[in-house]
Amino acid sequence: MRSLQKSLVNSLKWNIIGQIFTFFLSFITNFLLARILLPKDFGVVAIATFLVSISKVFIESGLSGAIIRKPDASERDLSTIFIFNFVISVVLYTILFILSPLIEDFYNVNNLSLYIKTLGIILILNSFYIIQNAHFQKLLQFKKIVTYNFFSFLIASFIAVVLAFNNYGIWALISLHILNSLTLVILYSFNPPPFKKIIFCKKSFSSLYGFGFFTTFSSIINTSYANVFELYLGKSISLSDAGLFSQCKKIIDNSLGIIRSNSHGVLFSVLSKIQNDKIAFDYLYSQSVRIFSVIVGLISMIFFNFSEEILFLFYGEKWITGSFYLKILSLVSFFTMQETFNRILFKIFNRTENIFYIELITKSISFLVIIYMFYLRNIENIMISFLILSILSYFLNYFISRRIFKATSIYTDLLNTLKVFFVIVFISLISYYAKFQLQFFLFHYILMIISLVIVYFWTLSILRVFNLKREIFLFVKNVKD
């Protein structure tokens, strides 16, 4: 147990360091690109990126997760999934290539077909390093993973910003995605492949795809649902609104990248190794989810209360109309991240069919509600519906996941999550009252943020959810040990 905690802390340490550097790099890149380019440019790329994202789900197919959780994954398993990923990536790129002119006609956007064809190259590039990445995760070599991710994004960001400054517009955004994948392929190629021979084994594929089948289709549903707003806004409202929504979602996603990466990568990898030790698993899972929830709550609270100020200060006046999107997405992200933590249980205990069924039920209901709201063409009601449905989906995910893994107390994690959300609402009321009563300048906003953060942790300590001083002491102690 002690060695596993040390492995978890060490892996978290490197992953957090890498994610922090990547976050600031991403922030600077987005800041520069948003200052130079228009929301419309981001809207066009968002449409093209969505189609590529759906295809990427098919390529990964949840099979990398199957490799991580399988204790005795062989070289034959790794080779089989590598071949599958490459073949399916070529097939999907061909389909995108053929359909792209029809998509351009549907949206009536000049050169959209060319943008889709170019971005589609990412599918083939990613197939070359997905298995290598999964292999590193299984070995808990997160230092190497985060190093590669940071330097690939650094190179891609530098070139993208240079292109933007030289008036390449949309192509600057496209180059960011293409060069990031290309650089990752090059960096991973310096390592020996995790298999010696390229062999496709039907038996290996069948055993692994049983895990990946349900995660694949649940991811497709989830990805489609998460991006339906950009597609709708780009077609029915304006490309500028699609760009505003896309950029606000990117702000939230980048801010939560550390948590998402550590839950999908480090936590999943470590917990997979102790899936048969109920006591150790219960302790590590609950403690990790509690700490992650507190951090996610803090991020959501800041973005909800200071959305206008953040957009104006860092992206300029042309982006401030997206503040409502940022507010709602900050709350939605709090509950979707909780779902991410719950899905770890489904994956580790090989009950991924539950993920698919839950996504099918919740997202089907959500799509019906959103279609009705789209008919009314009321963006505010659509976003509020999005939030309510995310909350209901979280509760369904939570109780079904706890039926698979019977924790010591089924309500402990739920109560901690609700307490954190209660604190967010409580502090938001204080923030609203303060803004309504007082006139603020930049320095006052900085003091206000610091004050709200102090109140946040103080309230959580009173509610016995999180004691900041104690948690920092334990983290430092584990790192030293």
Helix-strand topology string: HHHHHHHHHHHHHHHHHHHH
Rounded mean pLDDT score: 77
| Amino- and carboxy-terminal Cα gap | 14 Å
Radius of gyration: 22 Å
Structural class: mainly alpha
Strand content: under 5%
SS field, number of helical segments = 20
Give the total of domains: 1
Helicity level: over 70%
The major sheet is characterized as: none
**What form results from the Cα inertia axes?**
globular
Report on this model:
Helix 3 (63-69) packs parallel to helix 7 (130-138), helix 12 runs parallel beside helix 15 (323-348) and helix 13 packs antiparallel against helix 15. The longest helix is centred in the middle third of the chain and has 36 residues, at 202-237. By secondary structure, the protein is mainly alpha-helical. 46% of the residues are buried. The radius of gyration is 22 Å and the shape is globular. The two termini are 14 Å apart. The protein has one domain. It has helices at residues 2-36, 39-60, 63-69, 75-107, 112-119, 121-126, 130-138, 142-165, 170-188, 202-237, 239-255, 257-273, 278-305, 307-315, 323-348, 352-376, 379-404, 412-437, 442-462, 468-480.
Task: Give a quick set of tags describing it.
mainly alpha; globular
Summarize the structure.
This protein has 481 residues and is mostly helical. It has helices at residues 2-36, 39-60, 63-69, 75-107, 112-119, 121-126, 130-138, 142-165, 170-188, 202-237, 239-255, 257-273, 278-305, 307-315, 323-348, 352-376, 379-404, 412-437, 442-462, 468-480.
